[in-house]
tRNA threonylcarbamoyladenosine biosynthesis protein TsaE
Amino acid sequence: MEYKTVTSEDMEQVGKQIAKSINGGDVILLYGELGSGKSTLTKGLVKELGVKEIATSPTFALMNVYKAIHPKIKKVVHCDTYRLRDKNDLEDVGITDYLYKPDTLCIIEWPDKVSHLFTGKNNKKISIEYIDSERRKIITE
Ligand SMILES: Nc1ncnc2c1ncn2[C@@H]1O[C@H](COP(=O)(O)OP(=O)(O)O)[C@@H](O)[C@H]1O
Ligand SMILES: [Mg+2]
């Protein structure tokens, strides 16, 4: 699928749309430059899964775990490896307890830094491309 957005509200809507086709155990690999809208898309997506907390960017926390209210998904894990120093740091905070678990959705910003972790089958790639300061193109597999 391909989407185009001009505002961050549109980007949240794309996240909500993507949430409708998510299954428990999926791992979303979110590609795109800094400021392209990965965290904005995530915000819409997790809202649609019934997460009540505001999904702020976990850039400083590395990993945030949210409780979802959804028939198939009980937990949403949001990781941002942008400031990751050592590629083992995400394992140290417990990511492998969540990856590919049937009642859990994981969303990973900058997945290339820790690509060795994504050996399961249920990976879903989403790429965001900058068109200009406001317009973005989103490509899903
Ligand atoms: N079409 C758009 N989609 C998403 N964000 C947009 C768009 N146009 C402008 N923006 C702005 O770009 C920034 C995107 O930030 P963020 O979602 O944190 O990006 P990332 O997580 O990829 O670094 C926000 O400040 C947002 O307001
Ligand atoms: Mg981000």
Q: What stands out?
A: The domain at 2-140 is CATH 3.40.50.300 (Rossmann fold). The pocket of magnesium ion (ligand 2) is lined by residues 38-39, 57, 80, 109 (CB under 6 Å). The chain has a mean pLDDT of 94. The chain has one domain: 2-140.
